């Protein structure tokens, strides 16, 4: 058995690690890739794909850094496909930050997005960033729409490509139900890796006609509209369309394609004014498991809930809100900051919470499972980055370890609510680091007299510290998989969930927290 295979990792009596090689093998064995519980991203995309080429990806690296660009490109494509499959146009982005994902979903995929973040600073930044993005995209739209000749419309599309804003028409054809995802039987362990078929997935019944429907109607009435013109119009939101002024040229002299272009733009502009003045709306609100979204969003309708690197308990609460609210038909959540999770069976005397970040599923609750803060801190480490040569910050870890000794030996403090934070990068030396840290912890630095002696005493043990942290890195994926499987099992315990799974979305070197928890509700729920 597996237990027998790895029984020699630790000494039976002292419980000390005695076989590092076997420890590493055991850690690998219980990691997410080896367990085979992830559904491949391509399998999900194929299952959700409609009979069209979709929307060509606009290069986001012009607007955000490499890591964020990668995350937004991959996740937005998946969210758009989920929304199309469910027949809905509204997205709720929980913990939206500065709106990178939200603004891209609205501008690239024409989705109505509400971004909710607890920080008013983030919300204001998101507003400003979105304003600049809209202005940038409107400029390209205005250039493309100002010339009535079809040949020059083609050239306009070429200019967009040269400027790394690649657009194709967004087709709104219904999903082929033969390629739907199969509903999972929640009682079998094999269902952790579903076949590529969804059933009983919720499809929203909406009565109002969207602006995409209006554009489609105009397209059927005027078949001579060029594909290139439609590509430019469809790839941007309605309120980015600049309606060409009729005073600039004689209407009788307009080519047929330009007439249709103007008509399409007019329809889109009217639809925008009558329904949605802005496709992306950043909001400030603290989200808990009990949050009533209808109190925050007045026009809440059937929607997809998403979260890109939601910190701590917010990832768990996102899943709880999904299962509790009938309007939310699907969820796609990537969590992070496991060290900030609240645990039901850790320090119970200090906590009065009734809703916990871990564990979520009944199986682990029944066992009273507890990870502890140190384990959760380890789960945040990035094994894949270390594997490609991005080594651990050994000196800063050493500074922090010696600081801990100073605080305990000189000040007698073993536990404080305050945290040091990112002091190392601002410090010129170890002594400067210690003084800055003590100031932040509100401790009197006049008591310092032997910090250099302590530093020198432990310098020779720096290699031990590095080895210890490397062991933590090796173990990190095992702890992360426990947290992720807890969330997946929670979803599988819910009667109203048709399908749920773990999907590796991102390159783990670019984005270490790379796995999404995805679920879709049954049609009647």
TrEMBL record:
Which Gene3D superfamilies does UniProt cross-reference here?
A: Vaccinia Virus protein VP39
* Superkingdom assignment: Eukaryota
Q: What is the lineage of its organism?
A: Eukaryota, Metazoa, Chordata, Craniata, Vertebrata
Q: Which residues form the Methyltransferase domain?
A: 67-344
Task: Write the protein's name.
Answer: MET25 protein
- Which InterPro entries does the entry mention? Methyltranfer_dom, METTL25, SAM-dependent_MTases_sf
